[in-house]
TrEMBL record:
One of its GO terms (molecular function) is alpha-galactosidase activity. It holds the Pfam family Glyco_hydro_36C. It comes from Candidatus Scybalomonas excrementavium. This is Alpha-galactosidase. PANTHER family: ALPHA-GALACTOSIDASE C-RELATED (PTHR43053:SF3), GLYCOSIDASE FAMILY 31 (PTHR43053). Keywords: Glycosidase, Hydrolase.
């Protein structure tokens, strides 16, 4: 059993393959956290819970009545701490009652254990077959009000994953406000921990940073209405010195695409508390009597063998138990996108010529990007008008799609449904559909405002107008973009006392519309995007199997972006393309081989006019496409190993290994060339120690243990940003 309850001890124990998580109900009814770490069988760990009378750390009334001064919620590790009752560390829940008071003391009420994985109404979450997971529900009730909380624990034993979520119920006769609702808390019995997070900006997302958790709060988050380019809703908690292949670490991934916070602190007695959830800034949720609020899911993955093992477990989980698209298990087409070749300036004939040039080289999918709708000749007009621009497409999207399909190619389309320009028919007819505060001039980004996705009439308009295009043109692929953050958050459809809900309701509206499209168009390959990687999170992956990793297509910059992304997300979900040089974002020139080497560590495609290439370059592209198809299963479904850190080293090296450990692919990209350079030795990972392997077509045979422990030297790389790869296969003797 993955979940065990011992009623005589009042202890819940959750086991995964390599970890144990234990909770107890205290003598006063509070839910106490005993342990989360390496697996411990058949052990009551409540002996770890000890208290002494500490000054300025008070006790619940019942404890004080019997002089139990060592029992304090300010020092005990808790499962779901609340604001206002004497725990002065980070809390998970702040409730404002009808009388204006802000306190809730949650006491154990009941539990359920059942096969399968819980799901959350209107929210994405990890899913599982009945035999793949177990769920624990623990119900807590406030002693002095009608607030009830259900904590959810999903245990996916084989992945070493425990998920957390909760629902807040108002069972009373009066409404309440939720001023803060976090999804989880974990208290660790140690103060030697670090938090690894992934910061960035537009066109340079998910840069790894590692900081010690000390006294005082360490947090990352977003109040931009999206998970953001600036901070990703995935962090790693680990002990000092943990590396790729050794040490205990915990990955924490928030399955949500809006405002978030991940926060850690060391308390007064050197314990470490971690909380994660919706960012409380700007959040105030009104809950009617007999209504409830669902908090999003946090996925915890445990590893006692370093961050590499943690990442591979999370990759497998997301590929198998988060992404639902059929394209997770089908080969996706190699695509060609026209944006960097034409931007807004194109005609139907020009697009067909670009597609033809791609088809001759093996491209399977042509994608028409921005500029095909409304009066869209620049970024200040047309958004919201989802009908074809007949000046560019005289026969509509349908006419172009028919020409592309006649070439034997699939056809794809770019959309940005959440946005609107003031210069559009939609705005002129429905200005109130924007997020905009009355009597204030709004903040404007990229010439666009944001549609109020919390409104059903807005979502219905978007679905009806866009689905008409999808049906008429028989679209095979859609890229769903979002090119600005939220500001001036105010909805014309919501009363004043509920305006604090709008940011969250916006995300729920996006999810509802995505679910509608995905359900009704399951044969379309959907790709998420937000100016590249501004909404690269597990919430989007629930609806779409891939996300455009970054608007930065510079191959050298991409080694760092894709490196950081790989800690929390599988390679198969990273949108990556070969673009023209000098690069559109950096002005750097990199060889066609290196550009493809980096893009193959993703979904792979091209973002240029392939017809402008020289004949020898066209031959290179042909061979690249064939090579990607050859290695597709290893790259998309294999185990991924980070062999170097491109942020710190002069060469980026990564490796894919198939699940049977019979085949491997190693990629090498030089980030800096030096005269008289020393040898670079690479140590492979993930092979079978006693098996024999051959590298490429060489005659020499290597034992797996030698390749992993002794390593081998790669050839000296000369020239700026050169690259190569090795194909390694097991041989029979």
């Amino acid at each position: 059993m993955a979940i065990i309850f011992e009623p005589n001890k009042k202890i819940f124990t959750l086991h995964t393959k390599n970890s144990t998580y234990q909770i107890q109900i205290s003598k006063y009814g509070h839910l106490i956290h005993n342990y989360y770490g390496s697996k411990i069988e058949n052990m009551d760990l409540s002996y770890l819970i000890q208290g002494i009378n500490r000054g300025f750390s008070g006790s619940p009334y019942e404890a004080m009545a019997v002089e139990d001064r060592g029992y304090s919620l300010d020092t005990y590790p808790q499962e779901y701490p609340t604001y206002g009752i004497g725990d002065y560390r980070s809390s998970c829940l702040s409730v404002e009652h009808e009388d204006g008071s802000q306190a809730a003391e949650l006491i154990y009420d009941s539990y359920k254990i059942y096969q399968g994985k819980y799901q959350l109404k209107g929210l994405p979450a990890v899913w599982a077959k009945e035999n793949e997971a177990q769920t624990l529900e623990i119900t807590l009730k406030d002693k002095y009000s009608d607030v009830k909380v259900i904590l959810y624990y999903g245990v996916l034993e084989e992945f070493d994953v425990i998920t957390r979520a909760c629902t807040i119920y108002n069972e009373g006769e009066y409404p309440i406000y939720l001023n803060k609702v976090f999804s989880c808390c974990i208290d660790f019995w140690k103060n030697n921990m670090e938090m690894i997070s992934f910061y960035g900006r537009h066109a340079m997302e998910r840069t790894l940073q590692r900081r010690k958790i000390e006294h005082g709060k360490l947090s990352v988050g977003s109040t931009r209405g999206t998970s953001s380019h600036q901070h990703n809703p995935f962090v790693i908690l680990c002990e000092e010195g943990v590396g790729e292949d050794h040490g205990v670490c915990y990955g924490a991934s928030f399955v949500y695409s809006g405002n978030f916070i991940a926060e850690a602190e060391v308390d007064q007695i050197n314990h470490t508390r971690f909380v994660m959830g919706i960012h409380p800034e700007g959040f105030r949720y009104y809950v009617e009597p007999k209504d409830c609020f669902f908090a999003p899911e946090v996925v915890f993955v445990y590893s006692d063998a370093g961050m590499g093992e943690m990442s591979r477990k999370l990759h497998d989980l997301y590929r198998n138990n988060l992404i639902r698209s059929k394209f997770m298990h089908e080969r996706r087409p190699v695509l060609l996108n026209n944006w960097e070749a034409t931007e807004f300036d194109f005609t139907q004939e020009h697009l067909v010529e670009i597609a033809k040039a791609g088809r001759e080289l093996g491209i399977e999918l042509f994608v028409m990007d921005d500029g095909w709708f409304g009066e869209r000749d620049h970024d200040k007009a047309g958004l919201g008008d989802w009908f074809p621009n007949k000046k560019k497409l005289p026969n509509g999207v349908k006419g172009l799609a028919e020409q592309i399909h006649a070439l034997g190619m699939k056809f794809g389309l770019w959309i940005e449904p959440e946005m609107i320009n003031e210069d559009s028919e939609l705005y002129r007819n429905h200005a109130d559909w924007c997020l905009s505060i009355p009597n204030r001039k709004p903040n404007v980004e990229r010439g666009q405002l944001v549609l109020d996705m919390s409104r059903k009439d807005v979502r219905d308009y978007l679905y009806d107008s866009i689905s008409k295009i999808l049906d008429e043109a028989k679209v095979d692929y859609v890229k769903w973009d979002m090119n600005r953050n939220l500001s001036d958050v105010w909805s014309a459809k919501v009363p004043s006392y509920r305006q604090g809900e709008v940011s969250h309701r916006y995300v729920l509206g996006v999810y509802e519309l995505m679910e509608r499209f995905m359900s009704n168009y399951p044969d379309i390959l959907w790709e998420g995007c937000s100016g590249g990687g501004g909404r690269f999170d597990a919430g989007i992956l629930y609806y779409m199997p891939q996300i455009w990793c970054s608007d930065n297509t510079d191959a050298i910059e991409r080694t760092s972006i894709q490196y950081g992304t790989s800690f929390g997300y599988p390679i198969s979900c990273m949108g990556a393309h070969v673009s023209a040089v000098p690069n559109h974002q950096t002005g750097r020139s990199v060889s066609l081989n290196t550009r493809a080497e980096v893009a193959m560590a993703g979904t792979f495609g091209y973002e240029m006019d392939l017809g402008t290439l020289r004949e020898e370059e066209k031959e290179i592209v042909r061979s690249q496409i064939q090579e990607f198809k050859k290695y597709y299963n290893i790259i998309q479904y294999g185990d991924y190993y980070r062999l170097t850190n491109p942020l710190e080293e002069e060469v980026a090296i990564w490796q894919f290994v198939d699940k049977e450990k019979k085949k491997a692919l190693v990629s090498v990209v030089s980030l800096r060339t030096r005269a008289n350079a020393p040898f670079i030795k690479v140590y492979l990972k993930g092979l079978k120690e006693d098996s024999l392997y051959r590298i490429d077509d060489g005659e020499e045979v290597y034992r797996g243990s030698a390749l992993m422990k002794a390593g081998f030297h790669i050839p000296v790389l000369k020239g700026d940003y050169s690259s190569l790869h090795f194909y390694i296969r097991e041989i029979e003797v």
